[in-house]
């Protein structure tokens, strides 16, 4: 197991109390595994990604442990995490455009970044990796503003994996891209895993169809908790949690027309995480909800590698 | 035809002294009828949003004409009574210090000053219920207290109160969650049956396909292919359309690699000038300039 997260609780401090963005998340990630993390906005998926690399000032680690390659990640200690960031855990942010220093040409920026981490720039290796994602070498002598969105995104991908981190977190990296660029970026991520530049990856997105193409396992979160985690195919083809089923059913696919088949959204909205109701958090929107749902459902393994938190699954 | 674009071209001047030019829209002609949803599909930089802005009168075309009901489309109160636009980011479309009811009160002041208060309040509530919002939950709230889906629906309700006939929807669902997105799309489809024309601008092919009767594919400012949605998606004639379709991630299939571009239908049929009408209403551009 390259990553083990157990009972992780992260809260946001607000004037009205703590927002329980992550309320007891446990999961494991194997070597070479790509985990797709999906859910609605506000379900805690970005919080999970962030808490594994850097908690911002509003975030508070309330409980739980994170172990990466047998070493515990000191996620609550901003300074101690410095030894891990970029070398062991790395992040590709959602907006690559704001991740690059606009006043430096790319080559100089990469050099400065590596020096700050006590590593030297291996120009040949950098160019080889750029070739792999289809970036021309001239890019190194350009300013970020001279690159297109997809090129910037791929450049940031190359930079953030230069030191071969064990865990890579890709946070909504394809959301702002066109379909053809999206495909190129997603394939490049797969290539990084296959070439061993990163050992395992968490791919945070709200696009289930895209996740299905690159992830080995998909994890669905709902209101700060795990709803379902299963091998990608099983999750898409035979989802067990009612929320996952509704989510998969609401996807418009090429070929589905309003006139022929009307897709339905999920009525209602997720509960406030300021003071979440007891029991199953999907209860109020769930078509199957019954009396037992007033009690919190445990995460159960219903098939090998298929975990569901639902009484009805 | 309600909205008609005739050989519309838009050239931007860029650089320090406007020395260089960029042609954002090249010779585009199409129309939108009442009760019809036309989707405008293209990648970033294809000129789809520029077209939306031209239609809304937010910028002036360099060449060609845009007419609405036979009259030139000009920014102004009369035009905006019929035509409204909604954009991608609902959070920046609202004045953050105005509560939702004030947004509606402003419409009354400028467009329906004669309507009595009580009747107007009833109209607002009806419009909100039409977009499936609970009036008591949204009125009296500031924009930051509402979700993206609620704000986007508020904007549609606002447009409905104006009794508009054409809606230019520019990427209105790209910030929304999968389930909310479907609610907004279903709402548009319902309004369409009441006679609202919609120009649905998007880069998401499956969303355009779900809603639209007709589809227009843009590349670098020019129309590559247009026609009934079923024909364009089911039997794409231009290699670029095929390439786009193959890049869409699908749930139950693997990514297909773009197939061989094939021969250029346009040249095969000996067409020249403008688009070739390959089948009734299904028009395609020459593929040779790029891929043949």
UniProtKB/TrEMBL annotation, chain A:
<protein>
    <submittedName>
        <fullName>Peptide/nickel transport system ATP-binding protein</fullName>
    </submittedName>
</protein>
<dbReference type="InterPro" id="IPR013563">
    <property type="entry name" value="Oligopep_ABC_C"/>
</dbReference>
<dbReference type="Pfam" id="PF00005">
    <property type="entry name" value="ABC_tran"/>
</dbReference>
<dbReference type="InterPro" id="IPR017871">
    <property type="entry name" value="ABC_transporter-like_CS"/>
</dbReference>
<dbReference type="GO" id="GO:0016887">
    <property type="term" value="F:ATP hydrolysis activity"/>
</dbReference>
<dbReference type="InterPro" id="IPR027417">
    <property type="entry name" value="P-loop_NTPase"/>
</dbReference>
<keyword id="KW-0547">Nucleotide-binding</keyword>
<feature type="domain" description="ABC transporter">
    <location>
        <begin position="3"/>
        <end position="248"/>
    </location>
</feature>
<dbReference type="GO" id="GO:0005524">
    <property type="term" value="F:ATP binding"/>
</dbReference>
<dbReference type="GO" id="GO:0015833">
    <property type="term" value="P:peptide transport"/>
</dbReference>
<dbReference type="Pfam" id="PF08352">
    <property type="entry name" value="oligo_HPY"/>
</dbReference>
<keyword id="KW-0067">ATP-binding</keyword>
<dbReference type="InterPro" id="IPR003439">
    <property type="entry name" value="ABC_transporter-like_ATP-bd"/>
</dbReference>
<keyword id="KW-0813">Transport</keyword>
<dbReference type="InterPro" id="IPR003593">
    <property type="entry name" value="AAA+_ATPase"/>
</dbReference>
Automatic annotation (TrEMBL), chain B:
<keyword id="KW-0067">ATP-binding</keyword>
<dbReference type="InterPro" id="IPR003593">
    <property type="entry name" value="AAA+_ATPase"/>
</dbReference>
<dbReference type="GO" id="GO:0016887">
    <property type="term" value="F:ATP hydrolysis activity"/>
</dbReference>
<dbReference type="InterPro" id="IPR003439">
    <property type="entry name" value="ABC_transporter-like_ATP-bd"/>
</dbReference>
<keyword id="KW-0813">Transport</keyword>
<dbReference type="Pfam" id="PF08352">
    <property type="entry name" value="oligo_HPY"/>
</dbReference>
<dbReference type="InterPro" id="IPR027417">
    <property type="entry name" value="P-loop_NTPase"/>
</dbReference>
<protein>
    <submittedName>
        <fullName>Peptide/nickel transport system ATP-binding protein</fullName>
    </submittedName>
</protein>
<keyword id="KW-0547">Nucleotide-binding</keyword>
<dbReference type="Pfam" id="PF00005">
    <property type="entry name" value="ABC_tran"/>
</dbReference>
<dbReference type="InterPro" id="IPR013563">
    <property type="entry name" value="Oligopep_ABC_C"/>
</dbReference>
<dbReference type="InterPro" id="IPR017871">
    <property type="entry name" value="ABC_transporter-like_CS"/>
</dbReference>
<dbReference type="GO" id="GO:0015833">
    <property type="term" value="P:peptide transport"/>
</dbReference>
<dbReference type="GO" id="GO:0005524">
    <property type="term" value="F:ATP binding"/>
</dbReference>
<feature type="domain" description="ABC transporter">
    <location>
        <begin position="3"/>
        <end position="245"/>
    </location>
</feature>
């Amino acid at each position: 197991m390259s990553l083990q997260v157990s009972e992780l609780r992260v809260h946001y401090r607000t004037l009205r109390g703590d927002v329980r963005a992550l309320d007891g998340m446990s999961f494991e990630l194997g070597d070479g595994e790509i985990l797709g993390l999906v859910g609605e906005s506000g379900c805690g998926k970005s919080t999970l990604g962030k808490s594994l690399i850097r908690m911002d000032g509003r975030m508070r680690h309330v409980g739980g442990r994170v172990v990466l390659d047998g070493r515990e990640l000191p996620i609550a200690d901003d300074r101690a995490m410095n030894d891990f960031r970029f070398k062991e855990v790395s992040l590709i942010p959602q907006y690559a455009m704001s991740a690059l220093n606009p006043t430096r040409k790319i080559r100089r920026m990469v050099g400065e970044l590596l020096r700050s981490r006590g590593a030297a720039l291996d120009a040949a290796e950098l160019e080889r990796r750029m070739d792999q994602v289809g970036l021309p070498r001239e890019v190194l002598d350009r300013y970020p503003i001279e690159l297109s969105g997809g090129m910037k995104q791929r450049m940031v991908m190359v930079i953030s994996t230069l030191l071969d981190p064990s865990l890579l977190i890709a946070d909504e990296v394809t959301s702002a891209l066109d379909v053809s660029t999206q495909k190129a970026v997603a394939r490049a991520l797969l290539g990084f895993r296959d070439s061993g530049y990163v050992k395992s990856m968490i791919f945070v997105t709200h696009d289930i169809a895209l996740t299905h193409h690159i992830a080995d396992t998909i994890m669905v979160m709902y209101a700060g908790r795990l709803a379902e985690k299963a091998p990608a195919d099983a999750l898409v083809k035979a989802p067990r949690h009612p929320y996952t089923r509704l989510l998969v059913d609401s996807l418009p696919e090429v070929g589905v027309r309003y006139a022929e088949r009307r897709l339905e959204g999920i009525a209602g909205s997720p509960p406030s995480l300021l003071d979440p109701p007891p029991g199953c958090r999907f209860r109020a929107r769930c078509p199957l909800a019954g009396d037992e749902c007033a009690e919190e459902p445990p995460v159960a393994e219903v098939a090998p590698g298929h975990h569901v938190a639902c009484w009805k699954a | 035809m309600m909205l008609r674009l005739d050989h519309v071209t838009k050239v931007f001047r860029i650089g320090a002294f406007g020395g260089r030019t960029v042609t954002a829209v090249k010779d585009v002609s199409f129309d939108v009828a009442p009760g019809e949803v036309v989707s405008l599909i293209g990648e970033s930089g294809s000129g789809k949003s520029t077209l939306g802005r031209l239609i809304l009168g937010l910028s002036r075309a360099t060449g060609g004409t845009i007419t609405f009901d036979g009259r030139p489309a000009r920014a102004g109160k009369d035009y905006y009574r019929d035509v409204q636009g909604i954009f991608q980011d609902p959070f920046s479309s609202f004045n953050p210090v105005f509560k939702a009811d004030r947004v509606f009160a402003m419409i009354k002041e400028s467009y329906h000053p004669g309507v009595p208060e009580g009747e107007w309040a009833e109209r607002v509530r009806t419009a909100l219920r039409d977009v499936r919002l609970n009036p008591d939950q949204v009125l009296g709230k500031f924009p930051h207290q509402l979700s993206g889906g609620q704000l986007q629906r508020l904007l549609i309700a606002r447009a409905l109160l104006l009794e508009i006939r054409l809606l230019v929807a520019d990427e209105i669902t790209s910030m929304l969650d999968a389930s909310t997105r479907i609610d907004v799309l279903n709402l548009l489809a319902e309004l369409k049956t009441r006679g609202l024309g919609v120009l649905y601008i998007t880069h998401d092919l499956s969303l355009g396909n779900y809603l639209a009767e007709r589809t227009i594919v843009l590349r670098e400012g020019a129309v590559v292919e247009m026609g009934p949605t079923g024909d364009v998606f089911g039997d794409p004639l231009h290699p670029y359309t095929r390439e786009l379709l193959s890049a869409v991630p699908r749930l139950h299939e693997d990514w297909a690699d773009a197939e061989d571009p094939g021969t250029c239908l346009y040249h095969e049929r000996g067409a020249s000038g403008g688009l070739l009408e390959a089948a009734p209403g299904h028009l395609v551009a020459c593929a040779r300039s790029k891929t043949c």
